[in-house]
Amino acid sequence: MSQQPLEIIYFDIRGKAQLARNILTLFKIPFVDTRIKGNTPDDALKQLAPYKQFPILKIGDLILAQSMTIARFYASQNNYSGKTFIEKALADEVVDSTQDLLLAFFTNKDDEEKRKNYFEVTVPNFLSTWESKLVSGNGFIARGDSYTFADLSVFTVVEQLKLQERLVSFPIIQKLFNYFVNHEILGPYYKSLPADPQ
Ligand SMILES: N[C@@H](CCC(=O)N[C@@H](CS)C(=O)NCC(=O)O)C(=O)O
C-alpha cells in the first residue's frame, strides 16, 4: 500500500482538507494534492466519494472519507496523536472543536448579525478555551510533552480563519502559531500555498 501514490482529493481551498495536508507535509509523506477544478466534482469523482463529499484519501483502490479520520490516520501512524489514551482523547476533543469553529464560520459568514456574533462571542470563547488548555498542558494542548495534531489543528484553523490578529490576549496560542508558521517544513509550505478566495 505504501508504494502506491497517495492522493488527497478536495476543493481548491484549505477547508476540511488542510489538517491532513499539513500532517502529510510535516512528516514528509509525499502526496498528490488534487484540487477539484471549478470546485465542481464530475460524476466520476462523485462516484469515488462514499458520502459524495470531500475530502477523500485515495491510495490505489483504497478510499477513505471523512477529513478528521484521514488526519487522525496519519497522526496515529506518525505518533502525533498523543501518547496515552488520555492525551489522545484530549487531542481528539480539541481537533473536533477546531472543526466546529471552522464549520460555524461557514454557516454564519453570510449574515451580518451572525458573523458579528461569531467573531465577537464564538471565536473568543474557543480561543479562551484553547489558551486555558495550553496553560494547563505547559504549552501542549493535549498535555503531553510535545505537540500533537491537536496543536497543529489549532494552528491550521487560526491561519485559515485569519485569527492571528486576534491573538493579543492569547499568548500561548500566539506562541504555538509562531512555532508552526516558522517551522522549517511548514513555513515554506505555507508560503507556497495558494490563497483561499475571500
Ligand atoms: N464530515 C465530512 C464533511 C465533508 C463535507 O461537508 N464536505 C463538503 C465540503 S467542505 C462537501 O464535499 N460538500 C459537497 C457536497 O456536500 O455536495 C468531513 O469532515 O469530511
UniProtKB/TrEMBL annotation:
Segments forming domain GST C-terminal: 84-198
Family annotation (CDD domains): GST_C_Sigma_like, GST_N_Sigma_like
Residue span, GST N-terminal domain: 4-82
GO molecular function: glutathione transferase activity
SUPFAM superfamilies reported in the protein's UniProt record: GST C-terminal domain-like (SSF47616), Thioredoxin-like (SSF52833)
Domain of life: Eukaryota
Name of the protein: Glutathione S-transferase
Organism the protein comes from: Tieghemostelium lacteum (Slime mold)
